[in-house]
Structure formats: C-alpha cells, structure tokens
Amino acid sequence: MTRPTVAKVDLDAFAHNYFLARRLHGGQALAVVKANAYGHGAVRCAQHLAGRADGFAVAFLKEAQTLRQAGIDDPILILEGCFDAEELECACELGLWTVVHQESQLVDLEQAAKASERQPINAWLKVNSGMARAGFNPDQVKDAYRRLRACSIAGDIVLMTHFACADEPEKEMTALQIAAFDAAVEGIPGDQSLCNSAGVLSWPNARRDWARPGILLYGAEPLPDKRHGLKPVMTLTGRVFAERTISAGESLGYGATFMAERETRVGLVAIGYADGYPRTAPTGTPVAVDGKVSRIIGRVSMDMLTVDLTNLAGVGVGSQVELWGNQIDVNEVAACAGTISYELLCNVKRVPILYGATALEHFPSYDIDSTESKVSIER
Ligand SMILES: *Cc1c(COP(=O)(O)O)cnc(C)c1O
User: Fold this and answer.
1) Residue 227, pLDDT score
2) Which atom of ligand 1 is least distant from the CA of 126?
3) Which residues contact 368 (CB under 8 A, 6 or more apart)?
4) Which one of the listed residues 114, 226, 254, 349 is annotated catalytic?
5) Atom 1, ligand 1: which residue's CA is nearest?
6) Is the CB of 162 under 6 A from ligand 1?
7) pTM for this predicted structure
8) Annotated catalytic residue within 8, 18, 34, 218
9) Low-confidence ranges of the chain (pLDDT < 50)
10) Which of 17, 38, 76, 79, when mutated, tests ligand 1's pocket best, judged by the most ligand atoms within 8 Å of its CB?
11) What's the CATH fold of domain 11-218?
12) Where are the domains of the chain?
C-alpha cells in the first residue's frame, strides 16, 4: 500500500490564470516560476506554457539552468540577477535575461563587455522606488542606465521596480512608488515593468509593457476581498486511514491541546508538517472530507493530522480529505496558520505531484491500494 497523500496540479488552470493576467495587464507577461513554481514543479509548469507565454522569471541562475536543461528555450529572466562574473558568463551562454540592481552587477557587465565574443544579454534595470530591498536609488538611475547602455553586451534594457504593498490597496505606498519610479526614469527610453500579481490585479496605472505575475498563476488571490476568476491549481489531499471516537473530557494529540467537549469522532489523515502542511494551523482550520467541510482538531504532527468527523454522515476510513484546493481556499488555511499562501505552496514537499487537466474528475481516482508515487499523467 502506498501512502494516500498527493498534490494534484491542474496545468490547464495554471495556463488559464496566466492568460487571464496577461489580458488584464495588457502587453507581455513573464510567468514567475521561481521556487519550483511556488511548489508546483517548475519544469512541468513551464513546459505547459512553453512557446505560448512571453517568457518566464526565476529567482537565480540555477533555477534557469534547470529549465534550459529541460528544453525550455523561451526567454527566462533572473530576478535576483547574477551573483558574480562567472554567473553572468553562464547567463549569456544560456541566452538568459538578467536583472541589474546594484553596482557590482554593472561592473560585471562592463568587464564582460571587454571580452568581445560574448552574446548580448537583455538587462532589466531595477529601480528602488521605496521598497529599499534591491535596486538603484532614483538619483542613481540615469547614470546606471547610461553605463548599461554603453556596455556592448547589453541588449534590450527594461526599466523595472517592485512593490512593497501592492496587496494592500488602502495604503498610499504603491501610488508613491509609482510616482517615484516615473520620476526616476523620466526621459529614459525602453520598456517598463512594475507589476507583480497584486499590481496586475489592482493597480491599473502600474500596468506597463511587462507584467511579472507569480502567486496569481497558482490561483491564490493576493487580495482577500477581490474575485477575478482565478482557478486554484494545486489540490492537496490525503485520506482518512484510521478513526476512533473519544469521549467528552478526553484530549487528543501532542500537547493535549484539544479537549473533547462531547463525544467526538476523530479521523486520522496521512499528512503532516513534514509534507509542508503548517504546524501552526490550529483547531478549527477548515478541511473538506469527501466534499463536506469540517475542521482540523488537535495539533498537526510531523506525518499526520486529525480531523473532526462528528456529524459527517458516510465518511470514515478511506474518505478523501482536501487540505486546500478547489473546495478549501489556500488563503483561508494560510490565514488560520498565521502566514500567506505563498509560504504554504512553496513548502509542499515529500508529497507526489500528480499532473492533470482542468476538471478534477479527469484525474484518475486515487486508489488507496494501487497508486504508485510520482504518477504523472496528462491528457
Ligand atoms: C517573486 C517576484 C514576483 C512575483 O510576485 P507575486 O507576488 O508572486 O506575483 C514579481 N517580481 C519580482 C521581482 C519577484 O521577486
């Protein structure tokens, strides 16, 4: 018997979300597939959009190399840029695009330009418009642009910035950042890129030539109150593999934190924090048992967790438990666990990923007795 725990990834939903974002934003869009596509499998996700997306973005060189090795020859932008001259050389060879956000990266490009046989590389010049994490300050931008433009190996230059609070529309910060960016790049020619997911969804005047959507591709709304027709991509499920009834006054699990107030039917589910389900998810965090909404009770363990089956008719050993996906919004679980959907999705591990297409009915039903791990099917 194989452990009945799996993350189903709906690649058509992923593509749907990408095209929805591009349509909303206008212009072109790089699908952000860093961190193994936020836990969804970067190679499979990129392969599904290869030749149809305008390009991809990853955090660092190694992630881009993985995609190139898998045969992805679309544009790929390295969001952290190259860490040193050696990485830059490699990026040039692989035909990658790189962010330039600090002096040392400019110097590496200037040095590389002297070695004339290098292929040109498209460079995204990053402006610090207020986030103060990476990027040239507004007063340095014109000079950085002039030096970059003078590098023989710099191809197209795109002007970019990144928002600190795009998912909090009530804050003034994003409007200030847009104004700071526009002032800093005034008179500099070239394409511009400002928007992450929340920017695409809620800041129309930040929509420029290129979008960089990440989390929205995976169907998780970065803005809790808005609904844009995104489709959830990952459905994380386990099954009830044991059940028991505890009496009023009995406690359950580590720390004995849950105390039954009445007779309680407890289902034991084969997933835990070693699989990436957050240990901080408290009693009351929603789950769906055979399609019926219930809750976690007691502490999440390393390899298993416990759910409340009381008053759920017809469920028991063998019932499927959705931790998040089509029925349970990953944002809701994240809120219960005191974090954000990004962290939950990126953390999924040890769980086989099953790739499939839009209607979840099209996934083969997961058979507790016969499923191989690492199943991979596609219509
Ligand atoms: C990760 C990242 C994105 C994508 O952000 P989301 O909030 O997931 O859309 C866009 N731009 C940069 C620079 C990033 O690092």
Assistant:
1) 80
2) 13
3) 1, 4, 239, 241, 318
4) 254
5) 214
6) yes
7) 0.93
8) 34
9) 359-379
10) 79
11) TIM Barrel (3.20.20)
12) 11-218, 234-348
- Any ligand 1 atom below 6 A from CB of 199: no
Q: Is 254 a catalytic residue?
A: yes
Strand partners, 259: 251
254-296 pLDDT tens trace: 999 999 999 999 999 999 999 999 999 999 999 999 999 999 9
User: Residue 114's pLDDT is what?
Assistant: 87
According to the model, what pLDDT value does residue 365 have? 40
- pLDDT score recorded for residue 224: 72
Torsion 213-215-217-223 (CA) sign: negative
* Architecture label for domain 234-348: Beta Barrel (2.40)
> Does the C-beta of 215 come closer than 6 Å to ligand 1?
yes
User: What's the rounded Cα separation, in Å, for the pair 148 and 112?
Assistant: 12
Distance 150 CA to ligand 1 centre (A): 29
SS (HEC) of the chain: CCCCCEEEEEHHHHHHHHHHHHHHHCCEECEECHHHHHCCCHHHHHHHHCCCCCCEEECCHHHHHHHHHCCCCCCEEECCCCCCHHHHHHHHHCCCEEEECCHHHHHHHHHHHHCCCCCCEEEEEEECCCCCCCCECHHHHHHHHHHHHHCCCEEEEEEECCCCCCCCCCCCHHHHHHHHHHHHCCCCCCCEECCCHHHHHHCHHHCCCEECCCHHHHCCCCCCCCCCCCCCCEEEEEEEEEEEEECCCCEECHHHCEECCCCEEEEEECCCHHHCCCCCCCCCCEEEECCEEEEECCCCCCCCEEEECCCCCCCCCCCEEEEECCCCCHHHHHHHHCCCHHHHHHHCCCCCEEEECCCHHHCCCCCCCCCCCCCCCCC
Distances (CA, A) of 304 to 18, 44, 121, 270: 34, 28, 48, 5
